[in-house]
Amino acid sequence: MLAVFRKTFARRTTELVSPDPGLQQRCAKSREKILRHFQAAHPAVSFCTTFAGGASLASIGPHAPRPSFLHRRLFCSYDNVYCVFVGSIHNLTSLVRQYGLSSKPADEALLVIELYRTLRDRGSYQADKALKDIAGSFAFVVYDNTTGAVFAALSSDCGVPLYWGVAGDGLLVIGDEVEIVKGGCGESNAPFPAGDNFTSSLFILEMEKETER
């Protein structure tokens, strides 16, 4: 799993920026080189797509050799919202009932998209609470191609790895393979915080601020 977003989003993650800009410029790579690295690492079983809004998503196809990957990898799109997902969710049915989803999703990636759309459209749930309601080991990145919003999260059990960093041209990079992220971001990378989420969507941030007040 790999996601690359325009540098506007990277400004929200100042803790990832290397204290040595010169070293960062020499070591980190461009979007194109990072995507090529991902595809070269997984020839014939990987794919990537780049959107007009400056986002790129890459994933491993369902026919990748299983012994090389411990966790299931999914890619899904619905209503112009895209999700790359790694891992598994154990309580799909209860989440459908709890959040009033229209039907049981075919897989975890579609469930995550449905949850995101619930957060976006109803405005009645916190992102942190929604993540705590999910039972399983997972990491995912959602990209809304209509609004340009990004929603990424990692389960609290550390069962699935996830890393993020800032690339040489200032882009935000999120992925589950440390070699890809570190190779693309140089020293400006770190493990994604377990049990946490990142969102560029102002409606979720504002909703959480109101709840805290």
TrEMBL record:
PANTHER family assigned to the protein according to its UniProt record, in alphabetical order: ALUMINUM INDUCED PROTEIN WITH YGL AND LRDR MOTIFS, OS04G0679400 PROTEIN
Domain DUF3700: start-end pairs: 2-200
Top-level taxon: Eukaryota
Pfam family, one: DUF3700
Protein name as catalogued: DUF3700 domain-containing protein
SMART domains linked to this entry: DUF3700
